[in-house]
Design goal:
2 copies of one chain form a homodimer.
Chain A: E1 6-9, H1 11-28, E2 31-32, H2 42-49, E3 56-58, H3 61-67, E4 73-79, H4 85-92, E5 96-101, H5 104-113, E6 118-124, H6 138-149, E7 154-161, H7 172-193, E8 201-204, H8 207-211, E9 221-222, H9 232-237, E10 247-257, E11 262-266, H10 269-272, E12 277-280, E13 283-285, E14 287-293, E15 296-309, E16 313-317, E17 331-336, H11 339-346, E18 348-351, E19 356-358
Parallel strand pairs in A: 1-18, 2-9, 3-4, 4-5, 5-6, 6-7, 7-8, 8-9
Antiparallel strand pairs in A: 1-10, 10-11, 10-17, 11-16, 12-13, 14-15, 14-17, 15-16, 18-19
Helix pairs in contact in A: 5-6
């Protein structure tokens, strides 16, 4: 029985999300290398294996270390942290490890300290503006390639980009437009470097563009992540419908405020994280309440949402259409704004079948 | 050596913060019952014990369970979650446990299931608007008292309020004004209930009002929490100076963008949490970089701040006055926006003396 905030996982929805993405990649003849930072679970990873996935992406060496127990081809899609060179070397001894680089000095450092081979992707910024080299930053790219060429154990595999600016979109058409622009910028790298590197891999991918089935022709590898669970943020972007969201936080009701039509939940920032949706019809939204359906859940209840979160408290607005017949000790289920962060905060999942799933 | 994001703790600053608050409570002749949700560490708790503190506050039964190993008088300052009645009963068998109630039905439930005595505080809303009964909500208060009176093992101890609206303040004068108003509202409860309950405890407290030494006369107990570490949010409110902040996140530099004067840190939302300061001179700020000082740190570097956080990335703006001579593999130290949430995300501390401190 649920007595404290618990992250519920609907295994069927999750498996459907995985199968749909595998099918999308197959249809487009693109290598799927899903990002596992969202679920961070060996068990959920096996659901991908059952669908033929054999290469993955993570965003830290700690995650690579965790998944190396069952996966032998891992890309760490985060600018390499050279201070962890010892862990890198240990992992490189065991699995095919790919690192992300955007600075020649990092290659020089790795070259000096690594005893085992690693693959290198050069990180490209296709317009998101977070990090990476410009697709036309040939001087810096060539400096990295030059440094790579000095050490046979350090192998250039290709270029990697994350079009995170699809997160600003609000429709499939907008996502498509951002994706096409990003892809066009990215493809120029093949033109320039293909002659020298005929096996060059172009790795691109973000959940929105992969979810809407945007055209990946010319791209070799896609790396969506959040689709395994989806969330309210992705739903607003247009990546998924609410009924594809595979996680919900079950939270006890601890106080009632019928006068202002609010409930207080045991469920706060330490459970959901502090991600929020700004500019929703109701204002700022930190989660949306769904209808109970046995151990699972159904649709969103319109107008019933988390209006604020503090460390342990969540405040729910109850709309006029919903009878205020709640009791202290009830359990509500809430769709998270950002499933990666909520899952990271909770550290495990309870399936709607009543089984605990562990994670990093 | 630091190789991944690490929450540094300056033990001397922390001990000074504790000593100052103990002194404030002594001067005001108010019982200090510090809130331990910020540090959540038995070891740091002992620093309070050394200062004569023997009663504490927490915000979950899990924390109460953790601290019950070394503390025998604990108030859970969160509306009681009746679904955890079994844990409540276990704790009540072992320590003096106080619960927070704002609904008579919760007392009826506890009365039915508890075998061991508990103390009850009625939660009052003195203006914050998060939860609690109005100070004039006599009908509801009396219904709770009536329910309490039916069971000798459930003892009414008094009223408890959190003036969280001091967090909207930007100066000591504003904090003082909010505090005085909150206190005035709160004190009316003593007038009304003192005859019936001569040992009535009025427990009030928030870090801002306690930090500025606001007048607690008439109040029996204060419960500040965040002061143990302080942070940028409290500094902006006016609770502390930057040099009182006792925690800083050490983060490796993983990418350089001299063209736009930005750095990418390994340090994101999973480390800092997603709390931010809106409306700072620079816009939205997610952390501020401080000057290195051996294993510790000194002042904030003006204009050098975290402008955004994603799951693992933090983007630092480097102001024109600061030479852009950073290298991949450097470690920067960053003051957090909200130390309670950052500490909760990190789960342990590295003191500037190089010692790990564990926590819940």
């Amino acid at each position: 029985m649920i007595s404290t905030p618990t992250l519920l996982l609907d295994e069927q929805r999750c498996r459907r999300n995985i199968a749909a993405m595998v099918q999308n990649a197959e249809q487009q003849q693109v290598q799927l290398r899903p990002h596992f930072k969202t679920h961070q679970s060996l068990e959920i990873g096996r659901w991908f294996k059952e669908n033929g996935v054999n290469k993955i992406t993570v965003s830290s060496l700690a995650m690579a270390h965790y998944f190396a127990a069952e996966w032998d081809d891992i890309t760490v899609a985060f600018p390499v942290n050279i201070l962890e060179v010892q862990l890198i070397d240990e992992l490189a001894a065991k699995i095919s490890l790919n690192l992300l680089v955007e600075d020649a000095s990092a290659i020089a450092f790795l070259s000096r300290y690594l005893k085992h081979p690693v693959g290198i992707f050069i990180k490209i910024d296709v317009g998101y503006g977070r990090t990476g080299l410009a697709p036309t930053g040939y001087e810096q790219i060539d400096a990295i390639l030059e440094e790579i060429s000095r050490n046979n154990a350090i192998q250039f595999h290709g270029f990697l980009a994350h079009a995170g600016h699809t997160y600003q979109c609000r429709s499939a058409a907008e996502i498509e437009a951002v994706h096409e622009q990003s892809k066009a910028r990215f493809l120029t790298l093949r033109e320039r470097y293909q002659r020298e590197f005929s096996d060059l891999i172009l790795s691109l991918g973000d959940t929105p563009s992969c979810s809407i089935g945007a055209d990946y022709s010319g791209i070799d590898e896609m790396r969506p992540g959040n689709f395994v669970f989806y969330d309210l943020t992705q739903a607003r972007i247009g990546s998924n419908t609410h009924d594809q969201i595979a996680v919900a936080m079950a939270c006890p009701v601890v106080a009632l405020h019928p006068d202002r039509r609010e409930l207080v939940l045991y469920g706060g920032g330490v459970h959901f994280s502090k991600d929020r949706l700004i500019g929703e019809p109701e204002g700022t939204v930190w989660g949306r309440v769904v209808q109970h359906q046995g151990p699972g859940w159904e649709d969103i209840i319109p107008g019933m949402y988390l209006r604020s979160l503090s460390q342990e408290h969540g405040i729910v607005v109850v709309p006029p259409e919903v009878p205020f017949d709640f009791k202290v000790g009830d359990v509500l289920k809430v769709l998270p704004v950002h499933s990666c962060m909520a899952a990271n905060a909770m550290k495990r999942y309870l399936t709607t079948d009543g089984r605990w799933i562990e994670r990093l």
